[in-house]
Amino acid sequence: MEGEKDSSDEFFERFSQHLSQIDEIASIVLRGHLLVEQDLDSVIEAIFFYPQYITRLSFERKIQIARAMALRMQEDPAWETLRTLNLLRNGIAHSSDIDDRRKKLAELRHACMNQMNPEAQRQHEGNSDKEIVILGCALCCGHLAILEETLVEMHAVLRELDEQIHPHLQRMPIKSVREG
Fold first, then answer.
1. Residue 42 Cα to chain centre, angstroms
2. Alpha helices (H) in 116-173, listed in sequence order
3. Taking Cα atoms as reference points, which of 80, 90, 87 lies closest to residue 113?
4. What's the pLDDT tens digit per position in 134-169?
5. Please, what's the b/e burial string for 108-123 (b: 16 or more CB within 10 A of its CB; e: otherwise)?
6. Which residues of 47-67 are buried (b: 16+ CB within 10 A; e: fewer)?
7. What is the pLDDT of residues 36-91, one digit of tens each?
């Protein structure tokens, strides 16, 4: 019984030490990823008339759906920033490999720089990892906001077109897209 207590005390101590350490980069990545995913959800909501039937999508699948609807924006470098942010988040959430994290942070830095004009690149070339993660999240959210605005406008046009094509059919309530 005494040996079990020592073992559980050691386990608790190791566990407590690990969870007591605050990893600022990990925290920013996880919280930033959450904000970006909320914006992705808004884009998905703007795409579909009844998004409640689209459930349990992975972040990667949400990116694919959003990109598939991104008229004139399919080749925007922001898609790579979204993808690398997700890879970084998954690496942090599922691994403690510091070399893998450094590699993914470098990929995110590269994706962010590819998204900016040369002047902005010069302005951000010396950014810390923390600043790059924040910048990457901000770039992703900005891209998704533009896409969402476009999709909301497309959605309104489709509804008008539907009413012209099917004036005799009852209009079904749609709660998913903000209407002006």
1. 11
2. 118-124, 129-165
3. 80
4. 999 999 999 999 999 999 999 999 999 999 999 999
5. bbebbbebbeeeeeee
6. bbeebeeeeeeebeebbebbb
7. 999 999 999 999 998 989 999 999 999 999 999 999 999 999 999 999 999 999 99
